[in-house]
Known about the structure:
Elements: H1 5-8, H2 19-32, E1 61-65, H3 73-78, E2 83-86, H4 95-102, E3 106-109, H5 111-120, E4 123-124, E5 127-128, H6 135-152, E6 158-164, H7 172-185, E7 191-196, E8 201-202, H8 213-216, E9 227-231, E10 236-237, E11 246-247, H9 254-264, E12 273-277, E13 281-283, E14 286-287, E15 293-296, H10 301-313, E16 318-321, E17 336-338, H11 343-358, H12 360-363
Helix pairs in contact: 5-6, 6-7, 10-11
Amino acid sequence: MGYKIFQRAQQSILMQSASVFAVILLLAVAVIGFSKPTVVHAAAAAPCSTQGTWACSFLKKSGVYAMNNPADVPTVATNGYTLVVGDGFRSPTDTYTQALIDNHMQLLDSFYEDTLYNTECPYINGARVCTPLNSTQVSSLINAVEAHTQLVKNSPAVGGYYLLDDYPGNIRDGLAWVNYAIRQVDTVKPTVCAFERTLTPSPSTGANGHYSFDTVLTNFFSSWCNSVALYSYSPTYNSPPPSNATIDWSMSTSLPTAITKLQNAGFNFSQETLIGIPQTFQFNPRYNDSGALEYRINPTRAQIASQMQGFCKNGATTIVAFAWNDGSTSPLPDGVHELFNNFDMRQGFRDGLTNCKNTNYWQAVH
Protein backbone atom coordinates (compact mmCIF):
# COMPACT_ATOMS: atom_id res chain seq x y z
CA MET A 1 0.00 0.00 0.00
CA GLY A 2 3.05 2.16 0.58
CA TYR A 3 3.20 5.91 0.46
CA LYS A 4 -0.32 6.31 -0.92
CA ILE A 5 -1.68 6.19 2.60
CA PHE A 6 -0.42 9.69 3.21
CA GLN A 7 -2.93 11.02 0.68
CA ARG A 8 -5.87 8.93 1.81
CA ALA A 9 -5.34 9.31 5.58
CA GLN A 10 -7.59 12.13 6.79
CA GLN A 11 -8.15 12.09 10.51
CA SER A 12 -5.75 11.96 13.44
CA ILE A 13 -5.86 9.33 16.14
CA LEU A 14 -3.08 11.00 17.99
CA MET A 15 -5.31 13.42 19.94
CA GLN A 16 -6.75 12.36 23.23
CA SER A 17 -7.71 15.40 25.24
CA ALA A 18 -4.67 17.64 25.62
CA SER A 19 -4.89 20.72 23.37
CA VAL A 20 -1.16 21.32 23.71
CA PHE A 21 -0.45 17.94 22.20
CA ALA A 22 -2.87 18.73 19.37
CA VAL A 23 -1.10 21.98 18.53
CA ILE A 24 2.30 20.29 18.55
CA LEU A 25 1.04 17.53 16.30
CA LEU A 26 -0.48 19.93 13.77
CA LEU A 27 2.74 21.91 13.63
CA ALA A 28 4.74 18.73 13.12
CA VAL A 29 2.49 17.66 10.26
CA ALA A 30 2.86 21.02 8.59
CA VAL A 31 6.63 20.88 8.83
CA ILE A 32 7.15 17.24 7.87
CA GLY A 33 4.60 17.31 5.09
CA PHE A 34 2.51 14.14 5.44
CA SER A 35 -1.05 13.57 6.55
CA LYS A 36 -2.09 12.19 9.89
CA PRO A 37 -3.23 8.56 10.15
CA THR A 38 -6.95 7.94 10.02
CA VAL A 39 -8.72 6.55 13.05
CA VAL A 40 -9.04 2.85 12.28
CA HIS A 41 -11.00 0.82 14.79
CA ALA A 42 -10.69 -2.93 14.66
CA ALA A 43 -13.82 -4.88 13.80
CA ALA A 44 -15.74 -6.44 16.63
CA ALA A 45 -14.87 -10.02 17.41
CA ALA A 46 -17.53 -12.62 18.26
CA PRO A 47 -19.91 -11.42 21.00
CA CYS A 48 -18.87 -12.24 24.56
CA SER A 49 -21.75 -11.90 26.99
CA THR A 50 -22.69 -8.20 26.92
CA GLN A 51 -19.14 -6.89 26.66
CA GLY A 52 -17.66 -4.65 23.99
CA THR A 53 -15.30 -5.05 21.09
CA TRP A 54 -12.11 -6.19 22.77
CA ALA A 55 -13.35 -7.18 26.23
CA CYS A 56 -13.25 -10.85 25.22
CA SER A 57 -9.87 -10.94 23.46
CA PHE A 58 -8.11 -12.83 26.26
CA LEU A 59 -10.32 -14.62 28.78
CA LYS A 60 -9.15 -17.10 31.43
CA LYS A 61 -5.86 -17.69 29.64
CA SER A 62 -2.32 -18.09 30.93
CA GLY A 63 1.00 -17.64 29.24
CA VAL A 64 4.70 -16.87 29.50
CA TYR A 65 7.23 -14.41 28.21
CA ALA A 66 10.53 -15.43 26.65
CA MET A 67 9.91 -18.95 25.43
CA ASN A 68 11.73 -18.91 22.12
CA ASN A 69 13.07 -22.45 21.76
CA PRO A 70 10.84 -24.83 19.76
CA ALA A 71 12.01 -27.68 22.01
CA ASP A 72 10.48 -25.93 25.04
CA VAL A 73 7.00 -25.57 23.54
CA PRO A 74 5.64 -29.02 24.52
CA THR A 75 6.90 -28.60 28.10
CA VAL A 76 5.35 -25.14 28.41
CA ALA A 77 2.07 -26.38 26.93
CA THR A 78 2.03 -29.31 29.36
CA ASN A 79 2.18 -26.79 32.21
CA GLY A 80 -1.10 -25.34 30.94
CA TYR A 81 0.13 -22.18 29.21
CA THR A 82 -1.60 -21.17 25.98
CA LEU A 83 0.00 -17.80 25.18
CA VAL A 84 3.59 -16.76 24.68
CA VAL A 85 5.23 -13.37 24.21
CA GLY A 86 8.55 -13.87 22.51
CA ASP A 87 10.46 -13.30 19.31
CA GLY A 88 8.38 -12.10 16.40
CA PHE A 89 6.73 -14.56 14.02
CA ARG A 90 9.42 -16.22 11.92
CA SER A 91 7.72 -17.94 8.99
CA PRO A 92 4.63 -20.07 8.34
CA THR A 93 6.80 -23.19 8.00
CA ASP A 94 9.27 -22.53 10.81
CA THR A 95 9.65 -25.31 13.41
CA TYR A 96 8.77 -22.87 16.19
CA THR A 97 5.56 -21.84 14.44
CA GLN A 98 4.59 -25.44 13.85
CA ALA A 99 5.36 -26.33 17.48
CA LEU A 100 2.99 -23.59 18.65
CA ILE A 101 0.23 -24.84 16.35
CA ASP A 102 0.76 -28.49 17.32
CA ASN A 103 0.53 -27.59 21.01
CA HIS A 104 -2.43 -25.21 20.68
CA MET A 105 -0.45 -22.16 21.74
CA GLN A 106 -0.51 -18.65 20.31
CA LEU A 107 2.14 -15.96 19.99
CA LEU A 108 1.63 -12.32 20.90
CA ASP A 109 3.87 -11.18 18.09
CA SER A 110 6.55 -8.70 19.21
CA PHE A 111 7.66 -7.87 15.66
CA TYR A 112 5.71 -4.62 15.99
CA GLU A 113 7.40 -3.50 19.18
CA ASP A 114 10.84 -4.38 17.86
CA THR A 115 10.31 -2.66 14.52
CA LEU A 116 8.87 0.52 16.01
CA TYR A 117 11.52 0.83 18.71
CA ASN A 118 14.38 0.26 16.27
CA THR A 119 12.92 2.85 13.90
CA GLU A 120 11.98 5.62 16.30
CA CYS A 121 14.22 4.91 19.30
CA PRO A 122 17.49 3.34 18.14
CA TYR A 123 20.27 2.58 20.58
CA ILE A 124 22.85 5.36 20.79
CA ASN A 125 25.77 4.79 23.16
CA GLY A 126 23.90 1.97 24.87
CA ALA A 127 20.63 3.83 25.46
CA ARG A 128 17.50 4.25 23.37
CA VAL A 129 17.08 7.76 21.99
CA CYS A 130 13.67 8.62 20.54
CA THR A 131 13.14 11.24 17.85
CA PRO A 132 9.96 12.02 15.89
CA LEU A 133 9.61 10.03 12.71
CA ASN A 134 10.24 11.74 9.39
CA SER A 135 8.23 10.95 6.26
CA THR A 136 10.78 8.45 4.95
CA GLN A 137 10.79 6.56 8.25
CA VAL A 138 7.00 6.54 8.39
CA SER A 139 6.74 5.15 4.87
CA SER A 140 9.29 2.43 5.65
CA LEU A 141 7.58 1.58 8.94
CA ILE A 142 4.15 1.29 7.33
CA ASN A 143 5.43 -0.89 4.52
CA ALA A 144 7.15 -3.24 6.99
CA VAL A 145 4.10 -3.48 9.27
CA GLU A 146 1.67 -4.07 6.42
CA ALA A 147 3.87 -6.77 4.91
CA HIS A 148 4.32 -8.58 8.22
CA THR A 149 0.64 -8.35 9.14
CA GLN A 150 -0.28 -9.80 5.76
CA LEU A 151 2.00 -12.72 6.58
CA VAL A 152 0.59 -13.46 10.04
CA LYS A 153 -3.05 -12.36 10.06
CA ASN A 154 -4.39 -15.81 9.14
CA SER A 155 -1.86 -17.85 11.10
CA PRO A 156 -3.32 -19.91 13.96
CA ALA A 157 0.05 -19.47 15.69
CA VAL A 158 -0.49 -15.71 16.19
CA GLY A 159 -3.09 -14.48 18.66
CA GLY A 160 -2.35 -10.76 18.70
CA TYR A 161 0.07 -7.96 17.94
CA TYR A 162 2.43 -6.80 20.71
CA LEU A 163 3.15 -3.09 20.21
CA LEU A 164 4.65 -1.72 23.39
CA ASP A 165 6.74 -2.84 26.37
CA ASP A 166 9.46 -1.06 28.37
CA TYR A 167 9.04 2.71 28.11
CA PRO A 168 11.52 4.04 25.51
CA GLY A 169 10.18 7.60 25.44
CA ASN A 170 7.13 9.29 23.97
CA ILE A 171 6.36 7.35 20.77
CA ARG A 172 2.68 8.15 20.29
CA ASP A 173 3.27 9.18 16.69
CA GLY A 174 4.88 5.84 15.86
CA LEU A 175 2.20 3.84 17.68
CA ALA A 176 -0.48 5.64 15.69
CA TRP A 177 1.20 4.77 12.41
CA VAL A 178 1.78 1.14 13.40
CA ASN A 179 -1.86 0.75 14.40
CA TYR A 180 -2.97 2.40 11.17
CA ALA A 181 -0.86 0.03 9.09
CA ILE A 182 -2.10 -3.04 10.98
CA ARG A 183 -5.74 -2.09 10.46
CA GLN A 184 -5.24 -1.63 6.73
CA VAL A 185 -4.56 -5.37 6.62
CA ASP A 186 -6.29 -6.94 9.62
CA THR A 187 -9.25 -5.63 11.61
CA VAL A 188 -9.72 -8.75 13.73
CA LYS A 189 -6.73 -9.66 15.89
CA PRO A 190 -6.12 -7.41 18.92
CA THR A 191 -3.13 -5.26 19.78
CA VAL A 192 -1.40 -5.47 23.16
CA CYS A 193 0.44 -2.71 25.04
CA ALA A 194 2.40 -3.41 28.23
CA PHE A 195 3.08 -0.85 30.97
CA GLU A 196 5.23 -1.05 34.10
CA ARG A 197 3.96 -0.32 37.59
CA THR A 198 6.94 -1.16 39.77
CA LEU A 199 6.40 -2.84 43.12
CA THR A 200 7.59 -0.41 45.78
CA PRO A 201 9.65 -1.80 48.67
CA SER A 202 9.47 -0.39 52.15
CA PRO A 203 12.00 0.92 52.91
CA SER A 204 13.32 1.52 49.38
CA THR A 205 16.91 2.50 50.18
CA GLY A 206 19.21 1.07 47.53
CA ALA A 207 16.51 0.43 44.93
CA ASN A 208 17.03 1.80 41.45
CA GLY A 209 14.30 4.11 40.20
CA HIS A 210 12.03 3.42 37.27
CA TYR A 211 9.78 5.68 35.24
CA SER A 212 6.64 6.76 37.04
CA PHE A 213 3.38 5.20 35.97
CA ASP A 214 2.17 8.62 34.84
CA THR A 215 5.14 8.79 32.49
CA VAL A 216 4.71 5.35 30.95
CA LEU A 217 1.00 6.08 30.38
CA THR A 218 2.07 8.79 27.96
CA ASN A 219 2.01 6.10 25.28
CA PHE A 220 -1.46 4.77 26.10
CA PHE A 221 -4.40 5.33 23.76
CA SER A 222 -7.29 2.90 23.51
CA SER A 223 -7.30 2.99 19.70
CA TRP A 224 -3.92 1.28 19.56
CA CYS A 225 -4.07 -0.62 22.88
CA ASN A 226 -6.94 -3.10 22.53
CA SER A 227 -5.51 -5.03 25.48
CA VAL A 228 -3.37 -3.64 28.28
CA ALA A 229 -0.79 -5.71 30.13
CA LEU A 230 0.47 -4.44 33.50
CA TYR A 231 3.71 -5.77 34.90
CA SER A 232 4.88 -5.25 38.46
CA TYR A 233 8.30 -6.45 39.59
CA SER A 234 10.47 -5.93 42.62
CA PRO A 235 13.03 -3.12 42.27
CA THR A 236 16.46 -3.58 40.77
CA TYR A 237 19.47 -3.44 43.11
CA ASN A 238 23.15 -2.98 42.35
CA SER A 239 24.09 -5.14 45.34
CA PRO A 240 22.29 -7.82 47.39
CA PRO A 241 18.92 -6.42 48.53
CA PRO A 242 18.73 -5.28 52.16
CA SER A 243 17.31 -7.88 54.51
CA ASN A 244 14.64 -5.45 55.73
CA ALA A 245 13.27 -4.70 52.25
CA THR A 246 9.62 -5.72 52.11
CA ILE A 247 7.32 -6.00 49.12
CA ASP A 248 3.54 -5.83 48.97
CA TRP A 249 3.19 -8.70 46.52
CA SER A 250 -0.61 -8.46 46.68
CA MET A 251 -0.34 -4.93 45.23
CA SER A 252 -3.12 -3.90 47.61
CA THR A 253 -2.70 -0.19 46.95
CA SER A 254 -0.32 0.12 44.00
CA LEU A 255 -2.46 -1.82 41.53
CA PRO A 256 -5.84 -0.15 42.25
CA THR A 257 -4.10 3.22 41.96
CA ALA A 258 -2.54 2.25 38.64
CA ILE A 259 -5.85 0.99 37.26
CA THR A 260 -7.59 4.21 38.28
CA LYS A 261 -4.97 6.19 36.37
CA LEU A 262 -5.33 3.86 33.41
CA GLN A 263 -9.10 4.36 33.40
CA ASN A 264 -8.65 8.11 33.67
CA ALA A 265 -6.51 7.87 30.54
CA GLY A 266 -9.34 6.16 28.66
CA PHE A 267 -9.13 2.44 29.46
CA ASN A 268 -12.56 0.82 29.67
CA PHE A 269 -13.06 -2.68 31.07
CA SER A 270 -16.18 -3.09 28.95
CA GLN A 271 -14.18 -2.47 25.77
CA GLU A 272 -10.62 -3.73 26.42
CA THR A 273 -8.97 -6.55 28.32
CA LEU A 274 -6.49 -6.37 31.18
CA ILE A 275 -3.57 -8.83 31.35
CA GLY A 276 -1.57 -9.28 34.55
CA ILE A 277 2.16 -10.02 34.40
CA PRO A 278 3.53 -11.35 37.70
CA GLN A 279 7.20 -11.70 38.57
CA THR A 280 8.42 -15.28 38.19
CA PHE A 281 12.16 -14.65 38.30
CA GLN A 282 15.01 -13.99 40.70
CA PHE A 283 18.42 -12.56 39.84
CA ASN A 284 21.04 -13.15 42.50
CA PRO A 285 22.72 -11.71 40.51
CA ARG A 286 22.60 -11.61 36.70
CA TYR A 287 24.45 -9.57 34.11
CA ASN A 288 22.22 -6.81 32.74
CA ASP A 289 22.36 -5.50 29.16
CA SER A 290 25.33 -3.25 29.95
CA GLY A 291 27.27 -6.08 31.63
CA ALA A 292 26.77 -4.82 35.20
CA LEU A 293 25.47 -7.04 38.00
CA GLU A 294 21.78 -6.74 38.85
CA TYR A 295 19.86 -8.19 41.78
CA ARG A 296 16.13 -8.82 42.22
CA ILE A 297 14.28 -10.01 45.30
CA ASN A 298 13.05 -13.58 45.03
CA PRO A 299 9.27 -14.13 45.17
CA THR A 300 8.24 -17.26 47.04
CA ARG A 301 5.59 -19.68 45.83
CA ALA A 302 3.01 -18.02 48.07
CA GLN A 303 4.01 -14.51 46.95
CA ILE A 304 3.64 -15.40 43.25
CA ALA A 305 0.15 -16.75 43.97
CA SER A 306 -0.64 -13.62 45.98
CA GLN A 307 0.44 -11.31 43.18
CA MET A 308 -1.63 -13.24 40.65
CA GLN A 309 -4.67 -13.08 42.91
CA GLY A 310 -4.14 -9.33 43.16
CA PHE A 311 -4.25 -9.03 39.38
CA CYS A 312 -7.40 -11.16 39.05
CA LYS A 313 -9.12 -9.36 41.92
CA ASN A 314 -8.57 -6.08 40.09
CA GLY A 315 -9.93 -7.17 36.73
CA ALA A 316 -7.20 -9.09 34.89
CA THR A 317 -8.73 -11.92 32.87
CA THR A 318 -5.45 -13.38 31.62
CA ILE A 319 -2.11 -13.91 33.36
CA VAL A 320 1.21 -14.04 31.48
CA ALA A 321 4.27 -14.74 33.61
CA PHE A 322 7.68 -13.19 33.15
CA ALA A 323 9.57 -15.27 32.41
CA TRP A 324 10.02 -18.80 31.17
CA ASN A 325 13.65 -18.36 30.15
CA ASP A 326 14.84 -14.93 29.06
CA GLY A 327 18.44 -16.06 28.57
CA SER A 328 19.86 -14.21 31.57
CA THR A 329 23.32 -15.26 32.70
CA SER A 330 25.04 -15.02 36.06
CA PRO A 331 28.59 -15.30 37.43
CA LEU A 332 27.14 -17.88 39.84
CA PRO A 333 25.86 -21.31 38.81
CA ASP A 334 22.61 -20.76 40.68
CA GLY A 335 22.18 -17.02 40.18
CA VAL A 336 19.18 -16.99 37.83
CA HIS A 337 15.83 -18.55 38.67
CA GLU A 338 12.89 -18.51 36.27
CA LEU A 339 10.00 -20.82 35.46
CA PHE A 340 12.09 -23.14 33.32
CA ASN A 341 14.42 -24.07 36.17
CA ASN A 342 12.48 -23.37 39.38
CA PHE A 343 9.79 -25.78 40.56
CA ASP A 344 8.47 -23.50 43.33
CA MET A 345 7.88 -20.68 40.85
CA ARG A 346 5.96 -23.01 38.54
CA GLN A 347 3.89 -24.22 41.50
CA GLY A 348 3.26 -20.65 42.63
CA PHE A 349 1.96 -19.80 39.19
CA ARG A 350 -0.23 -22.91 39.20
CA ASP A 351 -1.59 -21.99 42.65
CA GLY A 352 -2.36 -18.46 41.54
CA LEU A 353 -4.10 -19.62 38.40
CA THR A 354 -6.22 -22.05 40.41
CA ASN A 355 -7.20 -19.24 42.79
CA CYS A 356 -8.25 -17.00 39.90
CA LYS A 357 -10.31 -19.75 38.27
CA ASN A 358 -11.98 -21.00 41.45
CA THR A 359 -12.97 -17.65 42.90
CA ASN A 360 -15.61 -15.25 41.68
CA TYR A 361 -12.86 -13.23 39.98
CA TRP A 362 -12.97 -15.42 36.88
CA GLN A 363 -16.16 -17.37 37.43
CA ALA A 364 -18.14 -14.28 36.55
CA VAL A 365 -16.23 -13.88 33.27
CA HIS A 366 -17.87 -15.50 30.24
